[in-house]
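Fold this complex.
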Amino acid sequence: MSNIYSTLERLHITLPPMAKPAAAYQPFCVSGSMVYLSGHIAKKEGLPWVGQLGLTMNTEEGQAAARSVAIDLMGTLQAACQSLGHDLEAVKQIVKVTSLVNSTPEYTQQHLVTNGCSELLAEVFQSKGLHARSAFGVVQLPMGACVEIEMIVELNA
Amino acid sequence: MSNIYSTLERLHITLPPMAKPAAAYQPFCVSGSMVYLSGHIAKKEGLPWVGQLGLTMNTEEGQAAARSVAIDLMGTLQAACQSLGHDLEAVKQIVKVTSLVNSTPEYTQQHLVTNGCSELLAEVFQSKGLHARSAFGVVQLPMGACVEIEMIVELNA
Amino acid sequence: MSNIYSTLERLHITLPPMAKPAAAYQPFCVSGSMVYLSGHIAKKEGLPWVGQLGLTMNTEEGQAAARSVAIDLMGTLQAACQSLGHDLEAVKQIVKVTSLVNSTPEYTQQHLVTNGCSELLAEVFQSKGLHARSAFGVVQLPMGACVEIEMIVELNA
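Structure:
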């Protein structure tokens, strides 16, 4: 088994099927060797993970939510790879992560929340999982979700 | 007439000339076969379409604003294509849409607002108009606009 | 001396070393001829430049902060070029700037704040510095910073 899939197994992570968009768009778009993944909102038991950092959630809970989004993103990324006849081994590198954290005007730890996603990507993809990133506080998210994360990934040609 | 332009005609849509940036940047940048379109704010009768979802505007009004931004984006995209000696027929696919919705902390339908843009793109460009997307709530936008949308588009080589 | 470095010298700008990420990500990621630069927060004397537009900072101060982020971004961009055996002369064009301005719900001049960054890029890189851009208001930023800016840059092949 590859490093990627054996790591997922060791972490007891089962990748979900591709996320279903909540509206008129697609979960991913392939352009050349790049995959653009739509913003994925955090979910809990299949429903939007509702909350706001600084109000109803603390940093640790936010990290758990961001980690769960990383798992959903990997599920969609796997589906994107499969649509091209590959699997996650085709990933050359995670290029960019953009993380939108539902925040009060006082909450300032969006970077720590987003580590819940970034650290899992680095653990699963190792050096290929190191990425550029932006994280910031948004006033609200679709369906009240606490975190939304999008991603750009480069595949091997 | 091509499908794209006949659809625009059927919808009684006249594309505007390229948007004029409000500040020190350009409406688009071409890099290889990709066109990066700047964030376009919603406008009404040539002025910023001022408003905030959840406060002075409802979802239906937000959708109308997002649809108007899609028209302005197509105008700028057409100008980008023309700068390369083409027209909108050169579009290979709409790759990514990022939608910033001016929202109160309670408003959670940014995805439905953004459909006003996404659905028009899909109608005009058909399967080439299906895109990856993120939509989220921002606390405020330049000149008080209710919606700002940016786009990445791939052209045929 | 090249135009880029002589302009920096004329402006008395010394580029800092590559920014150190505050969390589990990298300051930049190279993908083909593109460099994706992580969101860089404004800093003052090495510490996060804390503030919010419309509350504790005015537009002029915000522009100064955005200008300082441009300098930090150029430092990281230079490091990215050096990792490939080049320097800033390898820049083909600044493609996209995304600017997140820590704003009150009433503040609407995010575009003017961001000019502090855009105008310096245009001065240093001349026509290669003209870029697509989005600027918007965010409810809060990591460590309370007043501005965060990310960038996509194309290098000569």
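The two ends of chain A are 22 Å apart (CA to CA).
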